[in-house]
Amino acid sequence: MTKQDSIQDVTEEMFQSILATPKHQRRLRSKTFWDNFGFKIRTKDRVTQVKDALHQRGLLVNFDDTVFGTEDKDEWVILTYVAPALPTLGALESILAEPIPTPEDAWFTLIAEREFESEREVEYYFIVPVLEQLGYLEADFAIGFPVQMYEGVKKVNKEADFVLFKGRSRAKEDALLIVEAKKSERILTEDAVGQARAYALWLSTPYYFVTNGEELRVYLFRGAVQPDVMLMTFKRADFRQHWVQFYQTLNKVAVLDYKEKLSKMMSGAYPGISKE
After folding, report:
1. In degrees rounded to 5, what are phi and psi of residue 145?
2. Which residue spans within the chain are E strands per DSSP?
3. For residues 41-73, b (16+ Cβ closer than 10 Å) or e, as one string?
């Protein structure tokens, strides 16, 4: 296990324990806090790595940037999870100046009339063509992407059907969108939505959508403790009339822009932690 993996693992365990508390807060003596990471010496690089890991999980520390990591071993380190207010949804705050790229009628007809015999066919004959129309390139696709996450305090390994990234990077900060596919004969359930939401939580994607090839549900992810927002739900046969909102919300450029706004807003919410 690398040092970075170890830092992330410890942070995730702290994050889970904090979410389990009524106030979403936990107090640790400084010595105990740093011992959890296995650090005997708090070097500048180690402190920075820990700050970045805490930031990624939205954990606020009671010390500013100049003090954190230099506090006395008996001082209290107070970690608090505060879900920041999200910026206004881009798809609702403006109409794109450029015309919306819209597939030909023949494409919508093919999408509406195609029959799927398996989940794999839903993925390759429905989800992939849709994502390509949204501007995602081959390098952005991670199919069957491994996600290490926690169920309670137990670490488990899962696979997300689709994760869309910014190019070939597979880093969490470059994850943009989760897509969860189900068999066409299966009704979409809250379990299916919860599964996609869990991937969004651990990969920090701003959006996710689930589909069984007949129905689509698109969600705005709002953090670990706030309820998500279902932005739209519609039948595949009605895709044409929902295309403009669907495209404005989930096209690659719009999602990149929205995630950048989130990152800047998070930096403002936690001014002691820098993304630089």
Report:
1. -75, 130
2. 25-29, 59-61, 76-81, 141-151, 154-165, 175-181, 207-211, 215-220, 229-235
3. ebeeebbebbbbbbbbbbbbbbbeeeebbebee
Q: Which residues 6+ apart lie within 8 Å of 269 measured at CB?
A: 60, 82, 84
Q: What amino acid is encoded at 129 in this protein?
A: P
Secondary structure of the chain: what % helix, strand, coil (to 5)?
45, 20, 35
Give CATH for domain 90-262. Answer: 3.90.1570.30
Decide which of 250 and 15 is more confident: 250
pTM for the full predicted model: 0.68
Rounded-to-integer distance, Cα 101 and Cα 55, Å? 36
- Residue 83: predicted pLDDT: 63
pLDDT tens digit sequence for 185-197? 778 888 889 999 9
Q: Extract the tokens encoding 148.
A: 């290490």
What are the residue boundaries of the structural domains of the chain, listed by start?
Answer: 3-82, 90-262
What pLDDT score was predicted for residue 238? Answer: 93
Three-class secondary structure of residue 166 per DSSP: coil
> Is beta strand 207-211 parallel, antiparallel or unpaired with respect to 175-181?
parallel
Residue 145 pairs in a beta bridge with 160
Between CA 211 and CA 215, with CA 213 as vertex, the angle to 5 degrees is 60
Spatial distance between the Cα atoms of 210 and 196, rounded to a whole number of angstroms: 7
Per-residue tokens: 130: 């849709």
